[in-house]
Amino acid sequence: MRRSISIIIPAYNEENRLPATLKSVRTYLDSQAWEFTEIVVVNDGSRDATADLAAKLGARVLQNPGNRGKGYSVRHGMLEAKGEWALLTDADLSTPIEELDKLWRMADAEHAQAAIGSRALDRSLIGVHQPAFREAMGRFFNFVMRIITGLPFHDTQCGFKLFETAAAQQVFSRQQLCGFGFDVEVLYIARHLGYRILEIPVRWNDVAGTKVSMTRGMQAFLDPFRVRWNAIRGKYR
Q: Are 51 and 61 in contact, with CB atoms under 8 Å apart?
């Protein structure tokens, strides 16, 4: 028998995409054998009807104190998760929710505390690719990230990550970064704390309407350096 799970969805101005996403997630969860499930939408200061729609569709809504960034939202959701496992997924479901089954089965079989979805391990699973420049920049970012942090992962930025909640409490309570570079940081912290993390190839499709501007994407190149500096200063102890 499976245990309990929380689905964490950070959301900023997602009133158009969120209804279909929440219905898909709920339909999937209802077809599974989890003993307890919850969908947690973290509203990051949206100026539209994101929060109201999420509540009407049965999600538990957490409110950030204004627009604080994706990293802040994910930390907020992970630290409030009630399930024994917690899955981070994006509001656009670029990775189909059904891929959760793959992550959980592998984590359970391998006694891992986390399993992260990866686009890089099997690119044949990518249905719709990003524009060529973005994809090239993503590969270069990963190359730089691995050199700076020593992390072994081929894709830290896929927004589909499963954590055992007890481990997530330890990891995300130490998180310092609030922007899009948080993925590198939480994986670095998890490795630093000795948790086992699996990287698993998942299906993925680029979805129009990304909230990540090119400027923000370029700024993310500084985050691996910030992670190393935080580690040197003892921020993750």
A: yes
Question: Closest Cα to residue 41, out of 18, 24, 20, 67?
Answer: 18
Look up residue 103 and give its amino acid. L
| CA–CA gap between residue 9 and residue 163 (Å, rounded) | 14
Alpha helices (H) in the chain, listed in sequence order: 18-30, 50-56, 70-80, 100-110, 132-149, 165-172, 182-192, 214-219, 223-232
Report the alpha-carbon distance of residue 153 to residue 125 in Å, rounded: 17
Domain boundaries, the chain: 2-232
What DSSP state is assigned to residue 64? -
Task: Write the burial class of residue 146 (CB in 10 Å: 0-12 exposed, 13-18 middle, 19+ buried).
Answer: middle
Radius of gyration of the chain (CA): 17
Cα 15–10–146 angle (5° rounding)? Answer: 135
State pLDDT tens for residues 125-175: 999 999 999 999 999 999 999 999 999 999 999 999 999 999 999 999 999
d(CA 182, CA 220): 9
Look up residue 70 and give its two tokens: 């994706």
Q: Which of 223, 173, 219 is nearest to 193 (CA)?
A: 173
The 8-class DSSP code of residue 223 comes to H
Q: Any idea which fold 2-232 has?
A: Spore Coat Polysaccharide Biosynthesis Protein SpsA; Chain A (3.90.550)
Q: Does residue 125 sit in helix, strand or coil?
A: helix
pTM of the model: 0.94
Q: Which two tokens stand for residue 50?
A: 């994101």
Interatomic CA distance for residues 203 and 206, integer angstroms: 11
